[in-house]
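Database export, one record per block. Field names are fixed; values are copied verbatim from the stored entry.
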Amino acid sequence: MSKLDNHPTVRAQRARVQVKPEPLTAQQLRLLCLEAGADDMGFVAIDRAEMDLDRESILRVFPATRTVVCILCKMNIEPVRSPARNVANLEFHQSGDRVNEVAHQIVAQLQSRGIRALNPPMAFPMEMEGFPGKVWSVSLKPLAVAAGLGQMGIHRNLIHPKFGNFVLLGSILLDWSASAQDEGRPIDYNPCLDCKLCVAACPVGAISPQGDFNFSSCYTHNYREFMGGFTDWVETVADSGSAAEYRKRVGIGETVSMWQSLAFGANYKAAYCMSVCPAGEDVIGPFLDDRASFVKEIVRPLQQQSENVYVLPNSDAEAYVARRFPHKRARRVGPVSQAATIQGFIQTLRHGFQPGKSKGLEAVYHFRFSGDESAECTVTIGQQKIEVQKGLVGKAQLIVSADSKAWLRFLRKEIGVPRMLITGALRLKGDPRLLVAFGKCFP
């Protein structure tokens, strides 16, 4: 201990005059964020109900968290609207870098005031042990809504009252609390105009006119060069017996695009729903002045774009492209989200569900998994919607009992249903045709 007492750093610290920092007010925090470059901000306490989904993961990242700040940075509108993906993606990457830099500066300023804080990345989650489940720490869009920065449009983008949906979000976790009256609260109206232009522009039909959202269709195409799409591409390379066979499966432009994503940054294949959205005080003017011209200049070029549209075989998206955009090239690809655990399978059922393929199906399924991973759930499909519940609820038309390891192999197409039935890894009670119908809902 005497050695520690005599250490120069220890002596310097003990000789320093300790000045207790002044308490940080909510107004000072807001000003600090704006001066760092944020265009708007809000914050919520970690114990708010809106944080229930993320509280565990946030506290795992930073156990001292008492408040979560959401910052918002504007994007330049015209680059996002460009049919040229290099222009649009450059704007996304530059704006994303700006959000991270602003958050970094805020954390540095808080640290200088003696307040512990950190900023998770605004995008590109890296906690991949749980993929395809939750691999991020903070769900930014729900956080922004709770903090009073806007509401979700039917295209599932946050719409800020002033800046519209041309924004990117970031977060800061900090060991600081404010009074409840200083916290953000959701705004009392939705800036979404319900104009349905996002429905008209989406190349895969992921947004229905009624507001339903097909996650699988959007994820398969727009995020082709991200996580799951990259995995499918790697497996395509591995399955190709020669360069010639690979070239039959993947066009040279797709290969080069994948390389550019690796070298520069992942490319979004379409952000058309965001591009055409006219909501927000700073955005709505041209739409109100001349709606026909707005559609002609902003929406039509995206609809008429000749491009690859990535779809799962026999999916709703594949049928939609053929019907709505026959000039676009529907490119069949493998699944971009394969469950690695039974819990992952259950959690992602809603995401992979294809409403169009479920037409006419009305059934309740009980799933019982045993072996390495035990779980039970109830899946109800009816009126082209799906409901997933924990446990066995109600009366099922088909009971599916399966060994968990075998079921995961089945999902990866490593084993078929007949073999599972013969070996006892799968047992069915009820009409087996319902299992076939179930499978068609998840191509």
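Remark 1: The chain is about 40% helix and 15% strand.
Remark 2: The two ends are 66 Å apart (CA to CA).
End of record.
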